[in-house]
Amino acid sequence: MSLNTGVYSASLQKGSALVIAVFISVVMLLLVAALSKLLIASSEGVSYEVQGTRSFFAAQSGIEYALTELFPLASATVATSCPGTLQNGEAVNLTLPPTISFNTAGLQSCTAHVSCRERSNTAGEVTHFWLISTGQCGTDEVQTSRTIQMEVWQ
Hints:
Blueprint: H1 16-70, E1 86-87, E2 90-91, E3 99-101, E4 110-120, E5 127-138, E6 143-153
Antiparallel strand pairs: 1-2, 3-4, 4-5, 5-6
């Protein structure tokens, strides 16, 4: 009984390992490229979410600042009109700046644009205030903004 070595000889199989190695290398390269693209997209999403949260807190700080102007803690008097705010898009009395820039850690490069409208009821007993604050944060690459609206009355 003899083995037929002519068909399966080692000399006829030269280069098959090279083809398998190239195939595995290409598959690994594609896998690394796909994972790196996924990682980049994930980091961009996290960046937008962080900037969006910072924008929300900037807008909330703008609302809180406007509330301290309307209802000061050190005074027993309550405002009957929007003090120093923007009213219907036109500057009225700018003791409250329409745009607030933040220098504190966590809100650097953030601003809040605050506006206020008021309306008294027909009897003049209650004044309603509508506060709108838009916080904006970011760099040239990533810009986010969040808007908070609040209705308050005395």
